[in-house]
Design goal:
The structure holds 2 protein chains of 2 kinds. By secondary structure, chain A is an alpha+beta fold. Chain A has a 5-stranded mixed β-sheet with strand order 2-4-5-7-6, with helices on one face. In chain A, helix 1 packs across helix 8 and helix 11 runs parallel beside helix 12. Chain B starts with 13 loop residues before the first strand and ends in a 14-residue tail after the last helix. By secondary structure, chain B is α/β, with parallel strands linked by helices. The chains are: A alpha+beta, B alpha/beta. Chain A: InterPro entries: HATPase_C_sf (IPR036890).
């Protein structure tokens, strides 16, 4: 139960994060979709920043350009492309450009560099925003991070070559270092951006996969819980419908059926997950031992709850030897389910006259041991296929919580179920 | 069928003649419910009920002889409000030399322990299968002590809490097995002793337990059961 609650809490938190509006970075979900949006936002930011730096030098550029009309046309095209990319990424698709759009983006940058040779004087192509094309090219390189390695290398190679073509005529002894540095910037910043973006994208994808896995585990957990719960309810209903069941047993069954109906109504009305398939919930035991610990319950209380409604079986409880043994709430729920399931099985199949429920604490072995023994007809464990009750409720559930379960039976010799766990405290 | 005629109430007792020679154990049933008084002898053909009586006082007066007295613990009803019952009835019958086997639905183990302390030699639940009831009555008739599962658990508690310390390790093993519902066959396989040897250990053990309960102070039992001091004073027999 505790596990289920923890999983539910985590799922609720994850769903809450995913539902929150994604307009500002703090609100963006940590999913792959959220990371794609943040990357798109970063790409758009670099484009807008570049445009903001291009604006002040426009008059100077037009004045210095040998081809002012071409300069203006290229400038307007670059600003329009930047705005288009920013709007597309942030508003329309909320993710970085796809491969086809990236090719167009690279092509446009190459065109700006090649035609820039005609529009920008050679002396203004390096170290000045009059020659804005290299700065624009850097933003394009940064936004190529999503491409596969081969495509990325090809695109960056083409842009670097175009950059070198743009600056080759302006190279002097004084600015060669700057040209080399700018060329390296294209390669290094591009590579770093690609590394970071791809890593964060992979991280988000892993987080999504983990969330999906948790959701699936929670679904399986709930499905299993429902199956176990329905198993007990089905057993009770089946026996209630059996006219040959003795009156004493019918009385016990009615008591259990009322508890089942109450529990299922609470579940259906959203009052919480099904707490117990027995006649009483663990709440009683939890309250009784609240002073002991917040997350432990008395084993004896668990066993008494599990035995409620089975007086017709001739129960012989012997719990005193374990009267101070505590178990975790999850272990207690597993033990309760197993004992209740065992008693349902005994009522349905064993034809016994007495059932001993014995609990013991063995300090010398550090174990507690619960034994359920009936004197019924028994069965051959190797010769029968275990149903949901035996397989999941009695064997699998306690084992899932680290408890040891053993079933021993033989035709005509009754059945013994032993559940063991570690003593704590 | 004969009545003694000494008391009008005794006319309600049913006394059957004892066969000249019979291997079946003889018993006297003391039970206030007429249906059970009339029905049980028919349902347990392997026990020869020589008399069925509604109250203990009748037997104490007539002193009929039998191997065992099968006694209901609750005998007071509207027709016999002053009937001796419970632990006092067990004490009186034991003091008169009868082997008492309780036949009751009483489940409170401190009451059952008090009855054993008062001298009861066995206990059969009314809900027990007839074959089990017949077997238990026959065992008590043969001189054995028959303690119910509830008392087996109590005995294990007495041992583990240091009240009963004189059991041998083997007897403790047998006690632990019986407390967990193991059959003699299972115990025999586990501890490599024959079933007859284990039954011998069990017979010795039950005698020790019966003697211990007769001799122990109620405070000891109160401690083991987690009862408050003095809780058993009124119910525990005074020897």
């Amino acid at each position: 139960m505790a596990v289920r609650e923890a999983v539910a809490r985590r799922l609720a938190a994850a769903r809450y994060r995913l539902r929150r509006p994604a307009l500002t970075p703090p609100s963006v979900p940590t999913s792959a979709e959220g990371v794609a949006f943040v990357v798109a936002l970063a790409y758009s930011g670099t484009r807008i920043a570049t445009v903001l730096q291009m604006i002040p030098v426009l008059p100077t550029g037009l004045a210095l350009s040998p081809e002012p009309h071409l300069y203006a046309a290229l400038w307007v095209a670059a600003v329009a492309a930047s705005a288009g990319v920013a709007i597309t990424c942030v508003v329309l698709i909320r993710r970085p450009l796809g491969p086809a759009a990236a090719v167009a983006d690279v092509t446009l940058a190459v065109v700006f560099l090649l035609l820039g040779v005609l529009a920008v004087p050679a002396e203004d192509r390096v170290g000045s925003w009059v020659g804005w094309a290299p700065g624009y090219t850097l933003t394009v390189v940064l936004s190529l991070a999503s491409l596969r390695m081969a495509a990325w290398l090809g695109a960056v190679g083409v842009l670097t070559a175009a950059y070198l073509f743009f600056v080759v005529d302006s190279a002097t002894a004084g600015n060669r270092t700057t040209i080399a540095s700018d060329t390296l910037s294209l390669l290094v910043f591009g590579a770093i951006a690609r590394l970071v973006v791809r890593y964060v994208t992979r991280l988000a994808a892993d987080a999504d996969a983990a969330r999906a896995q948790v959701a699936e585990l929670a679904r399986l957990e709930e499905e299993q819980r429902a199956r176990l719960t329905m198993h007990d309810a089905a057993t009770i209903m089946q026996l209630l419908a059996d006219a040959t069941v003795p009156p004493a047993t019918q009385e016990q069954l009615r008591e259990q059926a009322v508890a089942e109906v109450r529990r299922m109504r609470a579940y259906l009305s959203g009052g919480g997950a099904p707490a117990s398939s027995g006649s009483a919930s663990l709440g009683t035991a939890k309250a009784a031992v609240a002073e002991l610990s917040r997350d432990r319950v008395l084993l004896c209380d668990i066993l008494r709850i599990a035995m409620t409604g089975f007086a017709d079986l001739g129960l012989e409880p012997a719990l005193d030897l374990a009267d101070d043994v505590t178990v975790s709430i999850a272990e207690g729920e597993a033990v309760r389910g197993a004992i209740t399931g065992a008693l349902h099985n005994i009522r349905s199949h064993a034809r016994s006259s007495m059932v001993i429920v014995h609990a013991d604490a063995e300090p010398e072995t550090g174990r507690w041991v619960v034994t359920v023994r009936d004197d019924g007809i028994g069965f051959d464990p190797a010769g029968v296929r275990f149903g949901t009750g035996l397989r999941r409720q009695i064997l699998a559930e306690p084992r899932r919580h680290g408890l040891t379960v053993h079933i021993a039976s033989a035709p005509g010799l009754g059945t013994r179920i032993t559940i063991e766990g570690k003593l704590r405290g | 069928m004969t009545g003694t005629g000494a008391n009008s109430k005794i006319d309600r007792a049913v006394v059957a003649p004892t066969p000249a020679s019979t291997p079946t154990p003889t018993a006297i049933l003391i039970e206030d419910a007429t249906a059970i008084r009339l029905g049980l002898p028919t349902l347990l053909p392997d026990i020869h009920f020589i008399a069925t009586l509604p109250r203990v006082e009748h037997l104490l007066r007539t002193r009929l002889a039998a191997d065992v007295v099968v006694l209901d613990l609750h005998l007071v009803n509207d027709d016999q409000r002053d009937a001796l019952q419970g632990v006092a009835a067990v004490s009186a019958l034991s003091a008169a030399g009868y082997r008492v086997c309780l036949y009751t639905q009483e489940e409170r183990r401190f009451v059952l322990a008090a009855c054993l302390a008062a001298g009861a030699r066995g206990l059969v639940r009314k809900s027990a299968p007839l074959t089990d009831a017949a077997a238990a009555i026959a065992q008590v008739a043969a001189g054995e002590v028959v303690i119910p599962q509830t008392m087996i658990a109590l005995t294990e508690l007495l041992v583990r809490r240091g009240s009963l310390t004189i059991l041998s390790p083997r007897q403790c093993q047998v006690l632990a097995g019986r407390a967990r519902g193991q059959t003699y066959a299972e115990m025999s396989k586990a501890i490599h002793l024959s079933e007859s040897t284990l039954r011998g250990y069990w017979r010795e053990l039950t005698e020790i337990v019966a003697r211990h309960l007769r001799e122990t102070a109620p405070g000891d039992i109160e401690h083991c059961l987690g009862l408050a001091p003095g809780d058993l004073v009124d119910i525990w027999p005074r020897h």
